[in-house]
Amino acid sequence: MIKVFIVEDDPMVLEVNKGFLERVENFRLVDSATTGEEAMDRLKHLSVDLVLLDYYLPDLPGKEVLTWMRQENLAADVIMITAARDVSTVKEMFRYGVIDYLVKPFRFERFKAALETYRNMWLKLNQVTDLSQEEIDALKPAQPTKGEMTATGLEEIPKGLSEVTLKQIVSVLEKQNVPVKATDIGNQLGMARVTVRRYLDFLVQEGQAEVHIHYGNIGRPSHYYTFKKQPATERSKRPK
């Protein structure tokens, strides 16, 4: 079993990532942290194989956590899962040895492909003492495969989400003429913001919605959502 540690300060994203992780075989979450300092403190006392690391943390950049891990010679691999998409950050993270880089929001297929590729590499490297060139080449990342679909045409809904609630949120979202916050939809449906946010993030990851992140001078960034217009051939796949 591959032991995983998640570093993510957004509670909704953390829950989504945990749910995704549960859907991939041979992985087990051992702990999580919401700040860089907390992550470093816990990783000192844990034996983990893989760290899913966010770049934007409230106290320090994920880069510093990664640098500290390398300095401490921790025997753990790192996959970045972050909204940071500028070229300089991506290049820097690969220079520090991350094995994959997932840009938020991402679909479950991409997450699954990253973990399955890592699992294949981990199993191979823990079963033999020498590798041929062909075996090394086989460790290269594979392309994501299409996920299973529900009756609504969306990928299988994660545990803890209701298809009925999902349809309600889609119905409200697609009627909006301007980007809206989770709070706005929650007020219309009588739901908590955190509940709506989980469904909206799932829709984004499934390609059914888009998120626009607005960064202010202080505090956490604001997330605004819009329904993603589908081609005519795809409209039948939306929840009705």
Automatic annotation (TrEMBL):
Subcellular location, principal: cytoplasm
Domain of life: Bacteria
Subcellular locations according to the entry: Cytoplasm
Classification via Pfam families: Response_reg (PF00072)
Segments forming domain Response regulatory: 3-119
Record bears the keyword Transcription: yes
Stored PROSITE patterns: RESPONSE_REGULATORY
The keyword RNA-binding is assigned to this record: no
Keywords: Activator, Cytoplasm, DNA-binding, Phosphoprotein, Transcription, Transcription regulation, Two-component regulatory system
Record-linked InterPro entries: 2C-system_Tx_regulators, CheY-like_superfamily, Sig_transdc_resp-reg_cit/mal, Sig_transdc_resp-reg_receiver, WH-like_DNA-bd_sf, WH_DNA-bd_sf
Matches recorded under SMART domains: REC
4-aspartylphosphate: modified positions: D54
UniProt xrefs under PANTHER family: TRANSCRIPTIONAL REGULATORY PROTEIN DCUR-RELATED (PTHR45526:SF1), TRANSCRIPTIONAL REGULATORY PROTEIN DPIA (PTHR45526)
Protein name: Response regulator of citrate/malate metabolism
UniProt lineage: Bacteria, Bacillati, Bacillota, Bacilli, Bacillales
